[in-house]
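May I ask for whichever protein you like with its backbone structure tokens?
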Amino acid sequence: MSNTTRLPWRTTLLWPVRYLINRFLFGNSRKIRGKGNSIHIGNSLLTETSILIEGDGNVLHIGDGLRLFNVRIVVKGRGCRIVFEGPGYFTGKLICGDSGSRIKIGSGGTAEGALLVAHEGTSIQIGNDCALGSGVTIQSSDTHAIYDTLSGKRLNPAQDIEIQRHVWIAQGATILKGSVIGEGAVIGARALVTRANPIPPSAIAVGIPAQTVSRNIHWTRERTGGKNENRLSL
């Protein structure tokens, strides 16, 4: 099976222009090696975005209404899948490797220089309307295996990561394998989230390792506009 690239056939006459921009212009590049790989790019704009796919049967899906700027996408494996649902804005790097690993980013989200790494057949699921600050790292594997020499048991297996909708992860935070972050939560700057401490919905978690310090919160992307606007209208 040959590799395929699919672009939406819209009624608009602008799709050839968008194709040329996303494929050849604005510093974009694309290298695909292997068989049965598929790339779908919707009505989105890519700038300084590089795509490298090596292996067989991998899928990259970029939906409608996305703005990808200075993004590096690396897929090395078999049957891996990266999905941007769109709309949204993303800068940073995504790495998907080994067999069957998956990264999915929901609609309405933003990311400023984030690093997402999925290996060993695990998944990273990011819900709708999430905000990832600069320098955020989300990694489902340690990338190197550690074993107990007596039992032969693996001590650090890779695990899925689930980040539910409307989560704000602040600058420099790290989300490790097996982590679960509930809907509407806020992760403080440079916090370290682990599987040992799931973050409940509508909570603020800070520190290393991240601990819940406040509950029943609600955050919004809009600034209040004044120091006297200090109450939430529900």
Q: What stands out?
A: The two ends are 54 Å apart (CA to CA). Helices lie at 15-23.
